[in-house]
DNA sequence: GAGTGGTCTAGACCACTGC
DNA sequence: CAGTGGTCTAGACCACTCA
């Protein structure tokens, strides 16, 4: 059953009369299928079935920001999980080219970088890095650890950048070893990469958010007009 | 470079003065990221990069249908690849529950099923299965092998179902062995699943399309209003 | 047959967990 | 501290590829 502990490697070796690496590999099979999770110093446990979070584009509606909810909070309330954010780091730096292009920055412009990890019921499900032009964010709550009710987007609107629309670029791939660790993914679990750009009503890109989601935990929903 | 052969395990052991299992594990990291592919008896090779196709939601604009282009044709023209469709199968059947729900069919309603595979420059990149209620499609060009200029959506509009909008549900996972064969994927390459539902102006769902895309070949672009 | 990756045994030290 | 999984060395046999 979910949460149950598997026999330890030592027990498996004894019981099946195999070498440790053989027992480990059997466990590795289960891990790569995502059926069990290893915790160092504790044991190997049968995975909790992954609850799927449906992310509708509705999560960026202004009324949510006005109600003091950031996007992850909207999903938490809707899906009924307990949200948490950790590994928060805020800095000012020169952005990667990919980001620079999307923000239409010249060669010189720095950005405020907000990196964090999102957890649902204690389980890491997403990492996100936001980039806001320093010319917009400097001295605002966007550089504070806690951006306040409604998150970055609410603060951007208070700074006079009324949001008009977002674009999201969605792709999927296997995670790097680092990413796998940070999202506590087992082998063989892919990630979705969502690169979101926020535009204000003047058409200026005011934020780019680079997110990495544990693929099994998410379904993204989008609405497309037939025009 | 792509296609290049990595040093063999024996060479790595000698060069870095490590045990074989250590060299193997380093290679395993790269394999799980899909960056290299191991072939028994031959060696380990750098994966071929797949050309990325950006799929903007714009591909469903009515003007394209009126110009006689289906969505895949729009992308082909924009990206400059040669499109091809094969493995086409058309039938009438009782749909899976997942589809039945989205089409809001009663227990009895059959659907026309159009299954096909898309190739770009000869390389399989996507499989798709469309489901249209038989009550709509029966006797129309939708059941023909060639649906004609503008594809299914153009025919649906001619049948009086003017399209209003689509929803797309995007997820990612590892392919099954069958799916891997059909898309000619190597080990460790994930797929994106896009389930699209088309609604007419009366709010009725008139088609569901279940697509499977080779993840490395695609970036999906969506536009989200801030409202 | 030489070279390759796939799999296995046997044993070591380490880092982390929880009592 | 004992028990756990993480990582490493050292060596073996096998299946497969290719000249």
What does this structure look like?
The structure is a homodimer of 227-residue chains. Chain A is an alpha+beta fold and 227 residues long. The first copy, chain A, folds into 2 domains: 9-46, no CATH class; 53-221, Chorismate lyase (3-Layer(aba) Sandwich). The first copy, chain A, contains 8 helices and 10 strands. Chain A has helices spanning 9-16, 20-32, 62-66, 71-79, 97-102, 134-137, 151-158, 177-182; strands spanning 36-39, 43-46, 53-56, 83-93, 111-120, 123-133, 163-173, 191-200, 205-214, 218-225. In chain A, the strands form 3 sheets. The first copy, chain A, has a 6-stranded antiparallel sheet. In chain A, helix 1 (9-16) packs across helix 2 (20-32). The radius of gyration of chain A is 21 Å and the shape is elongated. Chain A binds chain B through residues 21, 54, 57, 60-63, 163-177, 180, 187-192, 198, 215-216, 218-227, and chain B through 21, 29, 32-34, 54, 57, 60-63, 163-174, 188-192, 198, 215-216, 218-227. Chain A binds a DNA duplex (19 and 19 nucleotides) through helix 2.
**Can you identify the CATH superfamily of the largest domain in chain A?**
Chorismate lyase-like
CATH classification class of the largest domain in chain A: Alpha Beta
Largest interface pair:
A-B, 42 and 41 residues
Number of strands of chain A: 10
What's the average pLDDT of chain A?
86
Structural domain count of chain A: 2
Query: What strand order characterises the main sheet of chain A?
Result: 4-5-6-9-8-7
